[in-house]
Amino acid sequence: MGTTSVRPIRILSRMVRGFDGLARRRRVAVVMVGVCATLASAIVGVAVGFPRLPAVHDEFSYLLAADTYSRGRLTNPSHPMASFFETIHVLSHPTYMSKYPPVQGMTLASGQLLTGYPIVGAWLGGGLMAAAICWMLQGFMPPRWALLGGVIAALQFGIFDYWVQTYWGGSMAAVGGALVIGAVPRIVRQPLILHSIVLGVGLIILANSRPFEGLVFSLVPAIVLLRWVRLHWRCRNSALMRGLLPAALVVGSGFIGMAINNTYVTGEALRLPYVEHLDQYSSTEYFLWNRSAPAIKTYVHPSLANFHVGWERDYYLQQRSLGGVLRTKGREWLDIWEFFIGWVLTVPLIVGIARLRQRRYVAPLLALLLVCLAASVETWCQRHYIAPTASVIVLLFMLGVRRMSLGLPRTFGAAVAMLLVVLVCVAQLAPIIVNGPNPDLATLPGRDAVIKELESMPGDHLLFVRVGPGHVPLHEWVFNGAEIDSQQVVVARYFDIEENQRLIGYYPNRKVWVVDVNSSQNLVKLRPYPSAVVPLDP
């Protein structure tokens, strides 16, 4: 009995020694957690369905960017028949391109270039996120807890969730935040050129993934560095040069690249594609402090009006009163809490915040609070909006886990940590087992089936999409790649018989079809185009 009871403890002790040995090799630990997170993401991705098919308009827009970058271009010329291809979150003029900052599109393009599948880029982004968070934690706590934090981060909001298993993104903004918040204390303690370069890279990633939230997040680290410069300006000029000059060069080069990208996409070096899209399409204010809703724009197709006026504007108008703001933001922050923390990590997070005693933790906490405040005054606040703070959230609950393990024998403390990992896995898998696949990973089966059916037929095709009243605007059907005319299946908006004839004349050698989509997507009917005069099913 005695020998039998001691054996599990010995096995656990050996596991702890092996884990600690890996954690002490800091660079190896960072690489290993990144590689393992990438491989685990790939396994889960294949299990839920490979290759991943897009579902919502954000994904389509990011895929357009990925397709464009993978072809070696920053944007695409406007199509001569652009009105038929206008879609949500995409610019048609002055060029044809996604409105979003380029980092997520470039991440997906890396997967497309390496393997032919953009989703592989999302998996790589998840691995980079886990590695960056592990590296950041190494600057704040002992190696074993840093490695454990990287593992938990990959499990909590990486491997199983939409940041890594869809095209929406979030992981790269988390990478940027981790690099910034991890580099600053290292520069203050021992300014090295490498740390300065890492800081610059993190800032550029934030500026090109979540510009507004990234700017707010960077304010506190900037203040810390300015204070360090003021204290050491006279006596440590060489250290200041090593700590700041490389970062300044990286950031300067990055902003030159951003100006070039803006010039290609919008025609102006200082005009972001996102701002250009807001001016062309948005009938809603981006921030809640703008109390007067802008005039409603004129849209070329009712589907665009249905989204920008029927969904976006309605969501904004719901928040015109204090009660509306509290209800809406309450739902949003509950969703954010479930994603980042959930029931497993709530207690460690509270313990971690309550036990903050050292000054070095103040700056990350203030950065987190500022981003949360800034996100609360945006009309929309989703989980990936506060992605720059992911590493700080991990830091806080890992401080709590460490505090809860103090006083326990080393082996039992390791058992607590392993139990936490198991509980995080259970919390991620239990909803999938009980309720089925994560709704964030859902696809559009109707669209996927129609496109696949047409691609299986010989020749090239033109597909008009006609939607019924009440169609869900988040489920967009009209999406095309970077080179529309070279696609086997071109997807276009249905106007009327006379207007449609212009596009049919532009594509004289394509077989023409029309698909009717009702509000629930359950009734999808594909017909040869002449039968398009048949009334649309309700």
Task: Briefly say what this structure is.
The protein is mainly α and 538 residues long. It has 20 helices and 7 strands. The strands form 2 sheets. The protein has a 4-stranded mixed beta sheet, with helices on one face. It has a 3-stranded antiparallel beta sheet with strand order 1-3-2.
Question: Characteristics of this structure?
Answer:
mainly alpha; 4-stranded mixed β-sheet; 3-stranded antiparallel β-sheet; 62% helix; 538 residues
Please write out the topology.
Layout: H1 2-24, H2 26-48, H3 57-70, E1 76-77, E2 90-91, E3 95-98, H4 102-115, H5 118-138, H6 143-157, H7 162-165, H8 171-189, H9 193-207, H10 211-232, H11 237-266, H12 273-281, H13 302-317, H14 322-340, H15 342-354, H16 362-376, H17 390-405, H18 410-435, H19 445-455, E4 461-467, E5 489-493, H20 497-506, E6 511-517, E7 524-528
Parallel strand pairs: 4-5, 4-6
Antiparallel strand pairs: 1-3, 2-3, 6-7
How would you sum up this structure, described in words?
The chain has 538 residues and is mostly helical. It has 20 helices and seven strands. The chain has helices spanning 2-24, 26-48, 57-70, 102-115, 118-138, 143-157, 162-165, 171-189, 193-207, 211-232, 237-266, 273-281, 302-317, 322-340, 342-354, 362-376, 390-405, 410-435, 445-455, 497-506, and strands at 76-77, 90-91, 95-98, 461-467, 489-493, 511-517, 524-528. The chain has a four-stranded mixed β-sheet, with helices on one face. Strands 1-3-2 form a three-stranded antiparallel β-sheet. A hairpin with a 3-residue loop joins strand 2 and strand 3 (95-98). Helix 3 packs across helix 4 (102-115), helix 6 (143-157) packs across helix 17 (390-405) and helix 15 (342-354) packs antiparallel against helix 18 (410-435). The chain is globular and about 80 Å long. It starts with a helix and ends in a 10-residue tail after the last strand.
